């Protein structure tokens, strides 16, 4: 792949992988870099786990005194382990689930760990962790039955709490994924708009500057191959070169001005665009450069602005190609059509006729013309014909 294609692929991969990384779908045990918000959330989670632990301290009255100290130490360590929930969420949740089979004071840390897994892991993992938590309720209800509830009452209450915590985590995860999805779509739409704007400006630069520079090359080539030309002819050619260079600089300033304007938030204005009536001026300019050009441009009435602009660009690029590849050959330009038929533009020149050096080109002119015609809803055909002519023929719909 080329450099731009690699960059775009990397941006697309980043756009879709980034939500998963931030949601914690990475590798277990990866390094954690907490933001300010993460520190606040983790502190609140630690306080939440500690608060739940303190609420369950009275339940230790039914536990023998030697085991109460063990419960308190493990409960404190369990609350402290909440700070590891981002790096080892699944491991922490499973450890808390196993400890909760017989210990009372790990319930707060177990709830936070279960919630973390539901938020940071897909259902195929978080669902299994939930199942482990529910299964641990069977021995817990047997070993630590509530004085006010039966065995099944204790199990049902614990299962309801586990399901509520899990559901809360799933809702948070779904909301985060929705937000990231909307952001990704917005970024994609912005990138698409920028790409289309760059392509529009690139087409504008190619259409304008390729024409101007080919005219410069044509006049310069005439001076090179006619060193014995009369002073009047040399002066006329030099004047044409100066005028073409001046016009090319003006066009370049206009395009650069649009690029500079594109940095603002306001809408980027279009440069003044040519119309179908300007084809006559284009033909006269080509004739002054020495091109043998025949133009058939009937009176078509009021032509839509976009249609006239596309027709002008097709003629301009076709004449530029004729100067590049068949300099000195006669060129025929025919424009015909109407409201009901659409507009047909045909540019024809003999193949294999070229006077003077060949002007280099990028080879993208006809491709750009085809894209322009298709974007306008029309079609373009180009290539050599049996009679030895090279023809560029486009049809464009006449839409108001």
From TrEMBL:
EC number(s) given by UniProt: 2.7.13.3
Bilayer-spanning residue ranges: 39-57, 92-118, 125-143, 149-171
Pfam family, one: HisKA_3
Key word Transmembrane present: yes
Keyword presence, Membrane: yes
Catalytic activity: ATP + protein L-histidine = ADP + protein N-phospho-L-histidine
EC category name: transferase
Keywords from the UniProt entry: ATP-binding, Kinase, Membrane, Nucleotide-binding, Phosphoprotein, Transferase, Transmembrane, Transmembrane helix, Two-component regulatory system
Signal transduction histidine kinase subgroup 3 dimerisation and phosphoacceptor domain boundaries: 197-262
InterPro entries: HATPase_C_sf (IPR036890), Sensor_HK_TwoCompSys (IPR050482), Sig_transdc_His_kin_sub3_dim/P (IPR011712)
GO terms for MF: kinase activity
Stated name of the protein: histidine kinase
Organism, scientific name: Nonomuraea typhae
């Amino acid at each position: 792949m080329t450099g731009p294609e690699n960059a775009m692929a990397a941006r697309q991969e980043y756009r879709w992988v980034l939500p998963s990384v931030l949601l914690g779908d990475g590798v277990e045990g990866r390094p954690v870099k907490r933001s300010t918000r993460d520190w606040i959330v983790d502190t609140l989670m630690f306080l939440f786990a500690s608060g739940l632990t303190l609420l369950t301290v009275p339940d230790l009255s039914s536990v023998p005194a030697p085991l109460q100290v063990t419960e308190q130490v493990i409960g404190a360590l369990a609350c402290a382990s909440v700070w590891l929930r981002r790096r080892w969420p699944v491991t922490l949740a499973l450890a808390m689930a196993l400890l909760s089979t017989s210990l009372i004071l790990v319930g707060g840390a177990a709830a936070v760990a279960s919630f973390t897994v539901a938020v940071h892991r897909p259902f195929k993992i978080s669902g299994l962790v939930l199942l482990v938590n529910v299964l641990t309720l069977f021995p817990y209800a047997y070993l630590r039955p509530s004085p006010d509830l039966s065995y099944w009452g204790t199990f049902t209450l614990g299962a309801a709490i586990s399901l509520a915590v899990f559901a809360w985590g799933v809702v948070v995860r779904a909301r985060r994924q929705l937000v990231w999805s909307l952001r990704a779509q917005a970024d994609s739409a912005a990138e698409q708009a920028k790409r289309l704007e760059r392509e529009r400006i690139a087409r504008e630069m190619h259409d304008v500057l390729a024409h101007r520079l080919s005219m410069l090359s044509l006049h310069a080539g005439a001076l090179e191959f006619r060193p014995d030309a009369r002073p009047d002819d040399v002066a006329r050619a030099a004047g044409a070169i100066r005028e073409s260079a001046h016009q090319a600089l003006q066009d370049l300033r206009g395009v650069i001005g649009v690029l500079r304007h594109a940095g603002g938030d306001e809408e980027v204005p279009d440069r003044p665009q040519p119309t179908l009536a300007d084809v006559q001026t284009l033909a006269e300019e080509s004739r002054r450069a020495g091109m043998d050009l025949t133009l058939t441009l009937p009176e078509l009435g009021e032509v839509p602005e976009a249609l006239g602009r596309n027709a002008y660009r097709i003629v301009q690029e076709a004449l530029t190609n004729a100067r590049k590849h068949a300099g000195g050959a006669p060129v025929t330009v025919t424009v015909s059509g109407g409201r009901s038929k659409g507009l047909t533009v045909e540019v024809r020149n003999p193949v294999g006729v070229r006077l003077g050096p060949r002007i280099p080109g990028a080879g993208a002119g006809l491709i750009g013309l085809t894209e322009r015609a298709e974007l306008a809803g029309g079609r373009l055909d180009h290539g050599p014909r049996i009679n030895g002519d090279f023809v560029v023929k486009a049809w464009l719909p006449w839409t108001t």
